[in-house]
Amino acid sequence: MEIRGINYKAFESFLKEKGREVKSPEDFADALKEFIQWVNDQQEKAKNVREAVLSGEDVPLHRMVIEFEKASVALNLMIEVRNRLLEGYQELLRMQV
User: Fold this and answer.
1) N or C: which end of the chain has fewer CB within 10 A?
2) What is the arithmetic mean of pLDDT over 42-70?
């Protein structure tokens, strides 16, 4: 199994989009926290739209579908990031010293 490096440029572009710039790779934990907060925000937006629809507010169907899909994609992305981190950790544990 090949271990590939973390694409730090992807995290930088994500954080620039959010108006925050990471100065160095040592801020990986901060970038990860920011990413988790972003996923949580997407889930909250979808929850708010769902509650608005259930309470009878006039919410366009396309807005509801878009918010649900954004929340779903964000959650799936976070799951994949977690899986990759776990695979890397397990690979490190299998290495002989």
Assistant:
1) C
2) 93
